[in-house]
Amino acid sequence: MKEFLQVLRRFVPPYKKYLALSVIFNILSAVLNIFSFMTIMPILQILFKTGDATSVTTLAAWDWGNLKESLTNFGEYYVGRLIAEFGPSYTLLVIGLFLAFATFLKTGAYFLSSATIIPIRTGVVRDIRNQLYRKITSLPLGFFSEERKGDIIARMSGDVQEIESSIMSSLDMLFKNPILIIFYFATLVIISWQLTLFTLIFVPLMGWIMGIVGRKLKQKSIKAQSLWSDTMSQVEETLGGLRIIKAFCAEEKMNRRFDKINSEYRDNILRVNTRQQMAHPMSEFLGTLMIVIVMWFGGMLVLDGKGLSGPTFIYYMVILYSIINALKEFSKAGYNIPKGLASMERVDKILKAENDIKERPDPVHVSGFNHSIEFRDVSFRYGEKWVLRHVNLTIEKGKTVAIVGQSGGGKSTLVDLIPRYYDVQEGEVLIDGVNVKDMAIHDLRQLIGNVNQEAILFNDSFRGNITFGVDNATQQQIEAAAKVANAHDFIMETEHGYDTNIGDRGSRLSGGQRQRVSIARAILKNPPILILDEATSALDTESERLVQQALEHLMKTRTTVAIAHRLSTIRNADEICVVHEGEIVERGTHDELLAMDGYYKKLNDMQKT
Length: 609
Known about the structure:
Blueprint: H1 2-11, H2 16-47, H3 50-55, H4 67-86, H5 88-115, H6 118-138, H7 141-145, H8 149-166, H9 171-175, H10 177-191, H11 193-213, H12 222-240, H13 242-247, H14 251-277, H15 279-303, H16 310-351, E1 372-382, E2 385-396, E3 400-405, H17 411-416, E4 426-431, E5 434-435, H18 441-446, E6 448-452, H19 462-466, H20 475-484, H21 488-492, H22 511-525, E7 529-533, H23 541-555, E8 559-563, E9 575-580, E10 583-588, H24 590-596, H25 599-608
Parallel strand pairs: 3-8, 3-9, 6-7, 7-8
Antiparallel strand pairs: 1-2, 1-4, 4-5, 9-10
C-alpha cells in the first residue's frame, strides 16, 4: 500500500479538482442510495402489514436519539394517509415510481463520480508516456546500446497500460467504496443489527469469490486501436532516428509531435471509457427498476393473500445488490495493484535512468565555428574495453579530414565525441579552444550537420524531412537545398512533389534517393561543421556518383570530418588519418600515405583487387 500511495503522490496532484468532485458525487450517491433504502423499508412494512399502516394517525416529534423509530413513524404516517385516501395498489405504484426516480438520481451521481475519475486515469497515463518519451529523447545514445528497443516499447505500451488498468482503476476503490461502505454499514446498523451481522459474515466472502471469477467488461474502439498503433510507430521511429533528432536539435519538435498524437489517443480513449462507465450505473438502475416492478407485483400478491413473504426476499436482495459491488471492488484491487506496481517498477527503470551527458549550470554559449576542432590526448572506453587510446588530432576550419581503418577500430566513436553523443574518460575535445563539455549542448549540435551511412528519414513528406530541425524554412530555401543535393528532380516527379509522403524510414525511395534527401536536410541546416559517416558505402555506382556530387557541394566552405570505407571518395581530403585498434597510426594526404607503404597502402591495394 505504501508503494501504491507513492505512485499516487507522484502523478495524481495535477488532477486534484477531479478528486474533489469524485468525493462529492460519491457522498451524494451514498446519501441518495440510503434514501432509497429508507423509503423501501417502511413501504414494505406497511404494505405487507396493512393494518399497522392505517393505525398510525399521529406524526410524532422528530428524535435524533431514536432515529429508527422516527423514520418508521414518519414513513408509516404519510404512507398510511396515502393508503387510506387512494388505496394500497395505487399507493404502491406511486411510491414505487418515486423510488425509481430517486434511484435514477442516485445512479446519475454514481456515473458522475466514475466519470470524474476517468480524466485522472487517462491523464496520468498520458503524462507517464510523455515523461517516458521526453526521457528517451534526452538520454545519451550509450543507454540504448544496453537496452533492447522492443523492451523499451513494451514498457511504454504494455506496462503503462497495466498501470492504467491496475493502479489507476483502483482510484474508484479509494474514493468511492469506502464512502459507500461506511454509509451502508451505518444504515444497516440503524435498520437491523441482525441483518447487518448476517451481511458482515457472508457478503465479504461472496464479494471475494465474485471478484476472483468475475469478468471485466472491455469496450474496444477501432479508432483508439489505430491511434495506439500510430503512437507506438512514432516511438519506434524515434528510437531508430535518435541520432538525427539529437544532431538537428529536434527533441522539442519530436516531443510536440508525439504529444499531439498521444493527446488525440487520450481524448479518444477517454470517450470510450466514459461510455464504458455508463454500463454499471445503467445496469444498476435497470436492476432497481426491475426490483420495483417485482415488488409492486409481489406486493399485490401479498395483499391478495397469496402467501408470498415479500419483505424478507426484497430486503435481502436490496442489501446484497448494494453491498456486494463495493466489496467486490476491494477484492479486485487486492490482486490488481501488485501487477500495476510491478509494471511501474519497469517504467521507472527508464524514468529514473541517469543521464551521463550533463550540461553545466552555466554553459558556454557559442553561435559559430571560427578556428579548429582538437582532440587532445583523448581516450574512450565502453565499459572496461578501451576503444580509443591517446588520440591527438587537430582539424582546422575549412579543411576536410578523412578517418579510415578497419571495422571496429573506433572511427565512428571518434566522430561521435564531437557532438557529445558520448563523453571521453580521458583527455578532452575542444572546439575553438573550448571543451565541448563546457558548451551548451544545443549550441554545440547546432554547429554540426550529419550524413550517415544509413539515411535516417521519418514517415513524413519530403518537405517535413528536409526541414527537420529547421523552423520557418521557405519553399525557395527547401528547393535550393534539394537542388544542391541532386534531389529536386526526382522529388518533383512524385505525385505531390515536396508534400509526398516517403513512407516509414523512406521505404518508398531508393538508397540513393534517401541519401540525397538526408544531404538536402544537412544543406538546409547549413552547419559550419559536417560529419560524414561512410555516406556512400552502401550505394550502387550511379547513386554513388550523384550522392558524391551532392556531398562535394555540401563540403564546400565547411569543415568536414569524413569516415570513409571507399578510399576513392576521400582522395582529395586535406588529411587522411588511419585508425587502427583505437589509435591513429598514420596520417597525411593520399599520396603521402601510399608512399609510406603501411596500413593505408594495404587498404588501398585490397580495394583494387
